[in-house]
Amino acid sequence: MPAAVMAVLTLSGGTATAQAAPSTTDDVTVAAVCHYTITGDPVNIRLGAGEAYPVVRVKHRGDKVTGPWPCTSYAGNPRYLWYKLHLSTGGYGYVATHLAAYNGYW
């Protein structure tokens, strides 16, 4: 049975961005993971999308981090947009988008 092709359309500031949905093979769904490289040094990973949230990790230039699919940025405080990241503890953290480079999803 052929796998269905799906896409997610994200609207941001009047611009639409399409991303392929996680791949599906028969009864198994494989979720894509978003990959980023930290570009600042040091970079605070926060509990929420904003500078008012507490720092839960500190990363350094070149560190590789991942986040959940879909790979979108979140509005936080008025100053920055934020990427949602996986934490080793099983929760999520956030990094300002100007401090991490998006490398794609797979």
How is the secondary structure organized here?
Blueprint: E1 7-12, E2 15-20, E3 23-25, E4 28-30, E5 33-38, E6 43-46, E7 55-59, E8 64-68, E9 73-75, E10 81-86, E11 92-96, E12 100-105
Antiparallel strand pairs: 1-2, 3-4, 5-8, 5-12, 6-7, 9-10, 10-11
Organism: Saccharothrix mutabilis subsp. mutabilis
Protein name: SH3b domain-containing protein
Keywords: Signal
Brief characterization of the structure:
This protein is mainly beta.
What does this structure look like?
By secondary structure, the protein is mostly beta strands. The chain has a single domain (31-105), classed as SH3 Domains (SH3 type barrels, Roll). Helices cover 0% and strands 55% of the residues. It contains no helices and 12 strands. It has strands at residues 7-12, 15-20, 23-25, 28-30, 33-38, 43-46, 55-59, 64-68, 73-75, 81-86, 92-96, 100-105. The strands form 5 sheets. The protein has a 3-stranded antiparallel β-sheet, with no helix packed on it. It has a 3-stranded antiparallel β-sheet with strand order 9-10-11, with no helix packed on it. The radius of gyration is 15 Å and the shape is globular. It starts with 6 loop residues before the first strand and ends with a strand. Residues 1-18 have low confidence and may be disordered.
CATH C-level: Mainly Beta
**Unreliable spans:** 1-18
- Overall body shape: globular
Number of domains as seen in the coordinates: 1
Number of strands: 12
Labels describing this entry:
single chain; disordered N terminus; 106 residues; SH3 type barrels; mainly beta; 0% helix
